[in-house]
Amino acid sequence: MTTDSSLRSGPGTTGRRSSSRDGAAGRDHGRLPGREHLPARQSAATASAAPVLDVVVPVYNEEKDLHPCVVRLHGHLARTFPYPFRITVADNASTDATPAVAAALAAELPGVRYVRLEEKGRGRALRTVWTASDAPVLAYMDVDLSTDLNALLPLVAPLISGHSDLAIGSRLARSSRVVRGTKREFISRAYNLILRSSLAAGFSDAQCGFKAIRREVAERLLPMVEDGGWFFDTELLVLAERAGLRIHEVPVDWIDDPDSTVHIVRTATEDMKGVWRVGRALAVGALPLDRLARPFGDDPRDRALTGVERGLARQLIGFCAVGVLSTLFYLVLYSFFRLGVGPQVANGGALLVSAVANTAANRRLTFGVRGRSGAVRHQAQGLVVFAIGLALTSGSLAALGAASGSPSHSTELAVLITANLAATVLRFLLLRAWVFPARACPEPEDLR
Predict the structure, then answer these.
(1) Does the pLDDT of residue 428 top 70, yes or no?
(2) Which of 174, 184, 195, 263 is least crowded, fewest Cβ atoms below 10 Å from its Cβ?
(3) Which residue is catalytic, options 134, 233, 257, 271?
(4) Contact 418, 396 (CB under 8 A)
(5) What is each CA distance from 305 to 136, 282, 311, 367, 444, in whole angstroms?
């Protein structure tokens, strides 16, 4: 197994991955392949069977709970899971008898192994083990087994079937049954509310210790995740969601562990720092999320269909929404500038500022262009479109001044609105055909 220098394999390790797998790490991963149902295999309890699922149990000083946890998890998978599996105990630099307990489990139970890391951090452990694993589906769960294990197969089934990219357990779903203290319930809901308001997160429960991911997604997503601690989960999900990957949520039954060693205040502080860091990176476009954008081979939007205009309705809706907001922004700016300068200067300044914002918003929201590539060229072309709008609106103001001498402010606004509406159709056509032209559909072999 190829790992970094901090990883030590204990008994039960399956050895190095094949040379073809190692060679794949150097290939260009510009696109994710199409999701496909993993091939059916006979379930096997022997350690020699190639695992479909690798369940990681990260631990730190868990000598008491580790043995019953792994025995119970192994028994459940052996009885119910229809594919070969592996359980990996990831020891985060424990100082008690945890390594000895893990080694004994690896020797006792087929398909169980342990790895040792010399640094603490749940995210660091998951990154290390997931990066080195050869299983096509990777998962993890907390050692206290607070989540009902009956949710494990529903968690990974959408990944095995090719339906989803990631899957998470949710304690906040309406049908979940949860037993935990008021303080932890409040903190959990408050944290997820912060994620929704600050990072526009759509998933319901960021920190439930019960998640899974397809390996080819992890290979591309993990290098972008900076955090090595408790914020690792949140950062992983936010980036996946922003990249347009599909996240499946499973309602879980959860009984909180009253003996949990998690330091709530310290963890919350680190989480807030992570929210600020990720939010800032997303705001300035510092994350290359375009690398994660599939086209999926099974996505109907990626098929070349004769006579079907690609995405026109969605683009029109996005363009209209951006246009309404841009117009309001423009009118506010014009009214503000008009307090100190003449109508032509106020119009030019307001139109210039709103045009830059309009091009950026249409680039991302209407035409779905991510990343920094081509951003300067798009803004330059957008300024040409701006010049056309400026000519129309300035010409309208000049005609109004020649006709009425000293028009009222309300009359100026009415003329400007009319002129902007006249320029809107031409602006959309130029943006769609020239600034952000539709890329040709890739051939099927390009999607592999």
Answers:
(1) yes
(2) 174
(3) 233
(4) yes
(5) 32, 34, 12, 19, 13
